User: Fold this.
Amino acid sequence: MMKYTEKMSKRLNELLEKNYDAEKGYKRAAEIVDNSKLKQFFENQAQYRNKFGHELKTEITNFGETPEKGTSITADAHRVWMSIKSTFTSNDEEAILKEVQKGELAAVEEYNEIINDTTLPPTTKSILSKQRTGIETALQSVKNFEVMVS
Assistant:
């Protein structure tokens, strides 16, 4: 059986990788779009996800474990898809927003799964709950932008 800290740090490392991915995805989206409000929103979200990553790294280190570096395989495929899509659809803001929405819905689900773990320490639960709220807020903004650009 895995030690509790190893199990927890593995789950936090998975979240950490996904936050790196989201940060890169948002930066890429900011480069693609022309709408200045959307560009600013994407840049802000990239900064938030970078901050989330730092908070997760600190928490993983507090468990005496080592934070992962780099991005996950699935998100790499997702980013490649966004790059390809942007080449062909030249700045289809609605399509980009749909992709962002898909990614953020998946992130909220993953956060919920970990937050619902009854063995989660209160400090970790607090950090993750705050981050999840930030993602849910971003998700609502994405839906608002979608209405705006459609």
